[in-house]
């Protein structure tokens, strides 16, 4: 009897510890990933069909494409030019950093998020060479509230 109770308790514990709580407001999904600075988390809201990035606008209760942030009245000099796509269950976000580059050339930063393993790899392109700068864990979050 004790073995059966222990087995049921173990199954309940494993179900409760599932990492992937895939919260979705179809077709939108959201991830929160570690960054190089451990105190800062990057949040990504994306369309699960094409990989395009969005942000959630609470006043209109709508998801707005991130590339339309200026037209929607949300603009920040801190947001760089970017593109995003889905390829083989990976969300690939390419950013062109013009501001933080000490030379007149821009820096290409590529974030590759494996949606099955929930791991984000950040790759910098500098002088034609690629190098991995950071790997971090990701978790699914609620696209509307940003809460796990």
Q: What's the total count of β strands?
A: 10
Helix percent band:
10-25%
What's the overall geometry?
globular
Largest sheet, in brief, is: 10 strands, antiparallel
Order of helices and strands: HEEEEEEEEEE
Mean pLDDT: 76
- Low-confidence sequence ranges: 16-20, 70-75
Supply Rg.
Answer: 19 Å
Give the DSSP E fraction (strand runs of 2 or more residues): over 45%
Q: What structural class should be given to the helix and strand makeup?
A: mainly beta
- Number of helical segments with 4 or more residues: 1
Distance between the termini: 36 Å
Structure, explained:
This protein is mainly β. It has one helix and ten strands, in the order H-E-E-E-E-E-E-E-E-E-E. Strands 1, 2, 3, 4, 5, 6, 7, 8, 9 and 10 form a ten-stranded antiparallel beta sheet that branches. The two termini are 36 Å apart. About 7% of the residues have low confidence.
